[in-house]
Amino acid sequence: MAATSILLVDDDLEHRTAFGLIFKDWGYDLTTAKDGLEAVKLCLKKRFDMIVMDVKMDGLNGLEALAFIKKNEKADSIAHLKGESLNRSTPVLMLTGYGTVGDAVQAMKDGAYDFLIKSEIDYNVLKLKIDNALEHFQLREAKQAALIGDQNHIVGRSPAFAKVMELIERIAPSPSTVLITGESGVGKEVMARLIWSRSQRAKQVFAACNCSAMTKETVEDVLFGHRRGAFTGADNDRPGILKSANGGTVFLDEIGETTNQFQSKLLRVLQNGEIQPLGRDQVEKVDVRILAATNIDLEKEIERGRFREDIYHRFTFKIRVPSLRERPEDLPELADYYLKRYALRNGREVSGFAPKALQAILKYPWPGNVRELQNAMEYAVVMMSSDEVTIEDLPEFVAAGQSVSVGSSSRSASPSPPSALKDVEREAVVNALEFTSGVKKKAAELLGITRKTLLDKIKLYKLTQYLVVKDSSAANGEDEFDDDFEGDDNA
Fold it and tell me: Beta 317-320 vs 178-181: how paired, if at all?
């Protein structure tokens, strides 16, 4: 583990020497600057864990240097310097004499962490202040990373979710193929990234490919690559994701949307680790771990001849991520996590949920699962007028749910019987379709699910009246039948 890096800024050579010896004795990686200008130049190039700086210095003083370090504000004497401070979140401890205590207090208002009077410094106190500052800022940055930047952060302790996490912990270190299933929005890619991050290939590339976001021709090109001249416009060789990610992990999202032709080429990868780029006769070897995900029932797709059974059985492990309806006890913690995450992103202070808002969140069926919950919490953060989310701050379709009884401890609601859950989900789908005048793309976005999932819900609940829509994208505005819907004997 790297030593803590400290920048010591003082124009007094004796003080720099004395402090320098002590800091090195404490095991810190010390850098010194003889004045504010030199400190600013160093802060343009390197991020330090801690800065200890004198207030009173000739030339650029400590307050002016602090203004740059914490706020990127440049005094006239440093206006010519290019670049921005790399230390805006670094704790700064100011050193002052008796006559400049007022300046030190002002420095704290401007972002300094604390100050010490130089003539009265107790080195034990100095060490304690440095340790406290480092601990405080490290905890703050860890929290911000978890709430804003960590897409693999996992929230949930329900029995259904705990089983998934236990299985992931067991299979992640292996090279085995994994198929992740579950409804749209449950976090299948998050689970794939979690498996990768805890695998032997964690230091190698993770390449994700959304198979449903591309045409049937493009997805093969993107995955397997092509040889120059393979088709019109192929002016150069293209390696493809599978070759570029050699040694790493490839995640194929929405694998259920792929063609039999693509699946036959993928089978060669799963069986022999071989790829054949478009326009090339020879095969090439690759070493990749394949993770895949789908919200489609692949066993039914196999029966219908739309998915190859041999591909399905090539996935050693199959993980089904439960929907939010199956883990209602996780809702309060999840909602609170995303609320705080979006509050940080938007620079808002938030204390939590008002009782009625929490009741509505617990009652709503969340057909779009975690993705829909994320959208709702972002909406609430933008709309809230105080530090507490009220029911008026929630999206209308969430707030419209019946209240449930929750105690002061914010415990979760008891799960409803399966039939009641279907009724609630059906009502949510109908409400979204009514609200968007039957335009399924908009209704799917409102629910936080894909258009195909919405079509499956329409089919499941026999809402065939919504297959004819007034689509604003139609050239003549005529009613059009939805070509993507395919009925069956039960429709």
Answer: parallel
